[in-house]
Design brief:
alpha/beta; about 375 residues; single chain; globular; Aspartate Aminotransferase, domain 2
């Protein structure tokens, strides 16, 4: 028997998900492909890391009690409703490991974050894609999601705001979906990681609804709000029973001492850093929209979040071609072709500070001139 024959069929068919941020070690490149806090990490991050690094001799606290307490205080949710992971990616993987069996049907919009489908396929689930209407700016219609919840459905996935489309569902729509799913005994996986840097966070989030909805699990992350993807810390909220079973299945010592202590400091002491970014982004994304529209001489929709998902049809280039053209000017944007049709004709890029955005706009102008042959 070959090695391939010994491997589970689900694994043999897998291909690694593709993401942005793929310019490791190239310090001259401005990364607009990753949606993180445009102010960068807090100034005291290095201090927190150095302090935490003084105690590496003992095993980390497997319960992550201190970090859960800090998250509980910030969100006004009991620690029993919280679990943490090595980035939100660990929780994305853990959810289907606990709740999805081979052959189960899982509904998710398309396009959306690729890790959801990857984790579900790894567990042998059948993915039912719900294409988002391009002619309505890829907005998710809750009624369509509810109609897709046929009897065989085990879980539905929602990213709010959605990645890569930057469109956001109002709170009432999310709760309607959760309640309708509960009537059919369907789990709802809700990703709020991109909501943390939105001025609408408190109005849209349903974190405080988890205890009363035993079919809901929500993830968030330190990556976006504190611009620290190099330190993997994510966290989730769920009904106590949901958290109990997910916690039972997780990897032991999934967060090291350094990650726990640094994340605790950030959650407790650096919320002002997040608020400053949110305040800046409100005006800057509108300025970016206007400047981009002027350069490409086309209408640009204002995103619900702090990143753009824009068609390249007017420029006459594909997403990979646009990525390479911008990269020649040391600006990285997201090649969206990996999200599947029609995303090969779209690009995603985030909003940063005014000075950094001016660099993006300068590169964009040069690329447009090159395309036009000026």
């Amino acid at each position: 028997m070959s090695i391939e024959q010994r491997v589970r069929p689900e694994v043999r068919a897998m291909a690694r998900p593709r993401h942005g941020g793929d310019v490791w070690g190239r310090t001259e490149v401005r990364d607009f492909s990753s949606n993180v806090n445009p102010l960068g990490p807090p100034d005291r991050l290095g201090e927190y890391i150095a302090e935490a690094a003084r105690d590496m001799e003992n095993y980390p606290d497997d319960s992550c009690e201190g970090l859960k307490g800090a998250i509980a205080s910030q969100y006004d949710v009991p620690p029993e409703n919280i679990m943490v992971g090595a980035g939100s990616a660990e929780l994305i993987r853990l959810f289907p490991e606990v709740f999805v069996r081979p052959g189960d049907r899982v509904v998710m919009p398309r396009p959306t974050f690729s890790e959801y489908g990857f984790a579900c396929r790894l567990m042998g689930a059948e993915i039912s894609d719900l294409p988002l209407p391009e002619d309505d700016s890829f907005r998710l219609d809750i009624s369509s999601m509810i109609e897709a919840m046929v009897p065989e459905t085990k879980a539905v996935y929602v990213c709010n705001p959605n990645n890569p489309t930057a469109r956001m569902l109002p709170r009432k729509d999310v709760l309607e979906l959760v309640q309708e799913a509960a009537r059919h005994d369907i789990m709802v996986f809700l990703d709020e990681t991109l909501l943390e840097l939105s001025e609408k966070d408190k109005d849209v989030s349903v974190v405080r609804e988890v205890e009363g909805n035993d079919n809901l699990f929500i993830i968030r992350s330190f990556t976006k709000s504190f611009a620290m993807p190099g330190i993997r810390v994510g966290y989730g909220f769920g009904n106590r029973e949901v958290v109990k079973y997910m916690d039972a299945a997780r990897l032991s010592w999934n967060l090291g001492t350094l990650e726990q202590r640094v994340a605790t400091k950030l959650m407790s002491l650096e919320q002002g850093h997040v608020r400053r970014a949110v305040s800046m982004l409100v005006d800057e994304k509108e300025r970016m929209r206007n400047e981009i529209a002027s350069i490409i001489e086309s209408k640009v929709l204002l995103p619900d979040s702090y990143f753009f998902f824009h068609s390249l049809m007017g420029l006459g280039v594909t997403s990979p071609q646009f990525r390479e053209a911008m990269l020649r000017h040391n600006v990285l944007v997201r090649d969206c072709s990996s999200f599947g049709p029609p995303c090969g004709d779209y690009s995603r890029f985030c909003v940063k500070t005014k000075s950094k955005d001016d660099e993006f706009l300068g590169a964009l102008k040069l690329v447009v001139e090159e395309i036009d042959g000026r």
